[in-house]
Amino acid sequence: ELVLTCAEKKIDIPVPRRNRPLYSQHLSSAIICFVGGTRREIHTKFSDIVHYLGGSVRKDYGDQVTHVVSFANLGEKYLTAFNMERSEILTEDWLLECWKERDNRILDVLDNDFIRIYRAKPLHNLNLFFFGASDETEQRHLHTLTLDNGKDFKFISP
Question: For this UniProt entry, which segments traverse the membrane (predicted)?
Fold first, then answer.
């Protein structure tokens, strides 16, 4: 797909690094930072996906970062990215979908309509605990608020 894409655009085929094949250039203009802490193996897997799709990965959030992949909306890097509002904050599902669509030359994975589907909601992968919400109306209200912000939960009675 990479060769076909480069031929269609009449550009040179980029030379991949040793031990890092290029499957497509879907993320060629993306510089991605991961936030929310995760196991090293998972971080490596997602970094490889970014590199296979022609993108770059940065350890720290900075001016050049265009997209943030959040495994959970917490930590200093997440707060910096959120407060700066320069980068899209997306779930890991975005990268998985980019990988599934690696052979689709027509799809633009950086298109706003495509990205909108995978934006991380405020409570992405966070655990919530509520104390003292015994009123049925209050519980329904809290449940609705958390669903709207990307999290489902159940009340556990003490």
Answer: none
Quote the distance between the C-alpha of residue 113 and its chain's center: 15
- Would residue 54 be called left, alpha or beta, if left means φ above 0 and alpha means ψ between -120 and 50 degrees? left
How many residues in total does the chain contain? 158
The answer for 56, left when phi > 0, alpha when psi is -120 to 50, beta otherwise, is beta
Phi, psi of 50 (to 5 degrees): -60, -45
Residues in the chain where the model's pLDDT stays below 50: none
pTM across the whole model: 0.75
- Contact by Cβ (8 Å): 68, 35: yes
Q: Give me the pLDDT at residue 33, please.
A: 92
Q: Tokens 């700066």 map to which residue?
A: 84
Phi-psi region of 44 (alpha: psi -120 to 50; beta: other; left: phi over 0): alpha
**CA separation for the pair 106, 51 (Å, rounded):** 20
The string of DSSP letters for 34-57 reads: EES---HHHHHHHHHHHHHTT-EE
